[in-house]
Amino acid sequence: MASNATQTVQDEVLKAIRMGQETLIDGIRTCVQTIQSVSPKVPAVHLPLADKLPTPAEVVASAYDFAERLLASQRQLAEEVLEVTALADSTKQADGGQ
Q1: Residue 76: which domain range?
Q2: Is 44 inside any structural domain?
Q3: DSSP state at residue 54
Q4: What is the pTM of this model?
């Protein structure tokens, strides 16, 4: 577990990132509203097989699901490396450090 100081720094970094994200969302919202107010209404276009494509929300969800699995796999690898190196260190100490 991270120390209190480390946790505090991490929390502050995440807070700063979130504030930047909120600023970005506000800017995008303003852009979209401006474009909607000045653009003409265009009829919907129906492309063949377009209904077979994933929605933008599905693409985002799928990408983040994959990223979560990848990160979990990397964490497992790191923990196994620590385990193996700890065994090597304890074996070395049991042999008198040789």
Answers
A1: 51-98
A2: no
A3: P
A4: 0.65
